[in-house]
Amino acid sequence: MKKIKKLLLGLILMVAISSFAQEYKFGEVSKEELLETSYPFDKSANAAVLFEKKKIYYDYDPKQGFVLTTEVFKRIKLYTKNGFGHASEELFLYQSNGTAERVSGLSGVTYSLAEDGSVIETKLKNDGIFKTEVSGSLKKMSFTMPALTKGSIIEYKYKILSPFSRSIDRILLQYDIPIKKIKVSLAIPEYYTFRKRTAGFLPINIRESSDRQSDMIYSQRVDYNVTKYDISAQQVTAFKKEPYSGNYMNYVSALSFELQSVQFPYSTIQNYASTWGGIAKGAFKNSRFGGAMNTTKYFKKDIDQLISGVSDPMKKMNLIYDYVKEKMTWNDRFAVMPRKNMKKVYEERVGTAAEINLMLIAMLKYAKVNVKPILVSSSNKALSLFPTLQGLDYVVARVKVNEDVYFLDATDKYGEPNVLPDRVVQGLGRLITERGDSDMVMFRPSKVSLKQNVLLCQIEEDGNIKGKQRVKYTSYEAHDFRVQNASKKEEEHIKRLKSIYGIQNISEYKVDNVENIGEAISESFAFEVSDEIEVIEDEMFFSPLLFLRNKENVFKSDERKYPVDLRYGFSNSYSVNIKIPEGYTVAEKPEDVGFQLPEKMGSFVFRMTIVGDMIQLFVSETVSSPLITEQYYSVLKEFYGQLIKKESDQVVLKKV
């Protein structure tokens, strides 16, 4: 037995060593790779990166100076059709003042096995390459590999040439699929000083060395030092997206380089290490940002008419906020700087996040409302630990009335003061002032949002149930309802409810206040169900929460390495009144119970009383903390385990 174990261990080591020693070259895909039906180290993976090589270095160009070059070669195995989504790539290219990043040498091939065992090669063509404009300064090139089949291997290579040599993109060292082998190298001239930082939970082994390089700089042959960084890894596990992960890019293993200073030969040092004070002052001095908040001529007449005779700053805030929400439409573009003339944006009635919210701020300032801008790192951005304008991509407004503070985002048609879209709630803000003051802002609300369920029903002798349910949504619960369902017709609402509750017979549907932003939404319907009660001879068995009970614990992993991001605290309450059939009595009922999460993060209450032929049940499920750190994950998982078990406890009715 010991010999067999040693032999198996030896085979495993040989596979690991050979996989790391294997050389990968573009255009040389083996039949063995194509025949592989699953990833050896993670059988559940629907795709895997077999090899990725990324090389980042600087070349000197007499006209442009140092050009930052990034070479990428990637090979991916698609084990199932669910892995086809990994056969696409998006490249974001920056442009400014007539200079732009560009892609060179893009080439891709899809390899598949024919029925006779031969290898079919299909090259990436122009019809699989797409170019779109994200903003005035950002373009996107994307491509999708052709002729995908189960078991295909795709590989592609390209080169990005960037004249913006001071900015090195974040280097991902982990994806949501496993990586068999990855090699990354960087070579940075001594003229650039970067601060290096790592993110994620996997160990990152960086080998640092130095070398000498020679270039013609300023018409002279110059020798200079180059710092080299080499990262290599094998069998990198996939990043596991857990329920309520928020912006999971904050937790993926990655490497970032943030510029501190630049000093070229015969030149003085230029410091780029930012402070929030410097960023704040620079934003206000910028003609596009500061100018957008101070230009009033284009809207003066309309706002004068809107707030005529109004002196209360709260009323002014609401009037102007609603006016901008109604007039303007967000074009889905994230930005901190306007890209167009604000008058033109106002006339076209469409704008970026920066244009719409800086317009809102300008109007509030004009109306003498105490307002300041907040620069935001949205949920689309990985958070930076250091001050950097590149880490920000959104703007919202902060209004202060007496001691009360209100956050406003006019891009959100369903928004309210202090009720913001997920892209902001799950991000991080920085309040800035013209003097250079700044404060960090967390947008997650301290007040819980309520969802109140009232259910009245009657059990018939055959075990069928007829009744009515009413649900009331407030604050963020109401906002979510509007975002997801405001445009739906009645039949779509009924289809949604059938899917949520698993019931088929729904009628008398009604919903109120969807269009009245700021008010609670009320939704009601009648129902009939026949599968919630088990009838055995003269007894009936059922959960008193019926179809409202939680049936599955979404927290399944044994451990978690990053927070549970619920966006906002919530409280779901259930008031259930069940009339039992004539001739029956309650023989057994669940015991009342209550338990809590630590640090007052949440609670659960279950109470039942019997009054005549009525079962009266009250259940409350509250999680008041919008963000629960990983140290409390096991407690949260256990909390929901107990909750589900309790909600599954049954009432027993016995025929008298």
How is the secondary structure organized here?
Blueprint lengths: L1 H20 L9 H5 L11 E15 L3 E14 L9 E9 L2 E2 L1 E12 L5 E5 L5 E7 L2 E7 L8 E10 L5 E5 L6 E11 L2 E8 L6 E12 L2 E17 L17 E9 L7 E2 L4 H10 L3 H6 L5 H7 L6 H15 L1 E2 L11 H7 L1 E2 L1 H14 L4 E7 L16 E8 L2 E5 L13 H4 L2 E5 L5 E4 L7 E11 L5 E9 L1 H11 L4 H12 L3 E8 L8 E9 L4 E3 L2 E4 L21 E2 L4 E10 L4 E5 L4 E4 L5 E10 L2 E10 L3 E2 L4 H15 L3 E5 L1
Which strand order spans the largest sheet, edge to edge or round the barrel?
6-5-9-2-1-11-14-13
Total strands: 37
Low-confidence stretches: 1-20
**CATH classification, class level of the largest domain:** Mainly Beta
Describe the structure.
The protein is of the alpha+beta class and 656 residues long. It has three domains: 2-270, Immunoglobulin-like; 276-441, C8orf32 fold (Roll), CATH 3.10.620.30; 449-655, Jelly Rolls. The protein is 19% helix and 41% strand. The strands form eight sheets. An eight-stranded mixed β-sheet has the order 6-5-9-2-1-11-14-13. Strands 26-27-25-24-31-35-34-33 form an eight-stranded mixed β-sheet. α6 runs antiparallel to α8 (353-366). The longest helix has 20 residues, at 2-21. The relative contact order is 0.07. Mean pLDDT is 92; it is low at 1-20.
